[in-house]
Amino acid sequence: MNVAVLGASNKPDRYSFKAVRLLREKGHTPFPVHPALMEVDGLPVWPCLHAIPAPVDTITVYLSARNQQPITEELLNSGARRIIFNPGTENPELASQLQQRGKEVLHACTLVLLTTGQLVEEAMTARSNDSTAKERS
Questions:
Q1: Rounded-to-integer distance, Cα 31 and Cα 29, Å
Q2: How confident is the model at residue 120 (pLDDT cuts 50, 70, 90)?
Q3: What is the pLDDT of residues 43-79, one digit of tens each?
Q4: Phi and psi of 117, rounded to 5°?
Q5: What is the span of the domain harbouring residue 16?
Q6: What torsion do the CA atoms of 32, 23, 103, 97 make, to the nearest 10 degrees?
Q7: What percentage of the chain's residues is helix, strand, coil (to nearest 5)?
């Protein structure tokens, strides 16, 4: 699964750095996103979501609500079907807008989802629901 890590850090003690590393360890393809960094844990960093060269399934957010404001439109118009707001990044207004656009919104810790296997479970449930909806139409 391709996962954009919005607000990625090159500091190993930051949760966003740990998410990039754990995503890779769990077999996912992380795409660190940060406008001022070149590399995170040996991976190239993308300056914005639109610059990522592959379809993104999930965006995990590590930016405060205030720092999300400049990229609100980019998040709303992304092709990702799921957005995860990690603790401290909650943004009820943006979450509501994302849901109105048909995106799944989770308020959860990506590290916990990865460690407990729920990240994949959640993605499979979403895909299963999409398939069922398509079969009914």
A1: 7
A2: confident
A3: 999 999 999 999 999 999 999 999 999 999 999 999 9
A4: 80, 5
A5: 2-136
A6: -50
A7: 45, 20, 35
Residue-wise pLDDT for 121-130, tens only, equals 555 554 444 4
For residues 16 and 61, what is the distance between their CA atoms, to the nearest angstrom?
8
Amino acid at 97: Q
Number of domains in the chain: 1
Q: Please state, in angstroms and rounded to a whole number, the distance separating the CA atoms of residues 90 and 95.
A: 8
Q: How much is the pLDDT for 128?
A: 43
Please state, as a whole number, how many other Cβ atoms lie within 10 Å of the Cβ of residue 62.
26
Residue 16: give its domain's CATH number.
3.40.50.720
What is the rounded CA–CA span in Å between residue 24 and residue 63?
Answer: 21
- Spatial distance between the Cα atoms of 11 and 109, rounded to a whole number of angstroms: 18
pTM higher than 0.90, yes or no?
no
Cβ(9)–Cβ(34) below 8 Å: yes
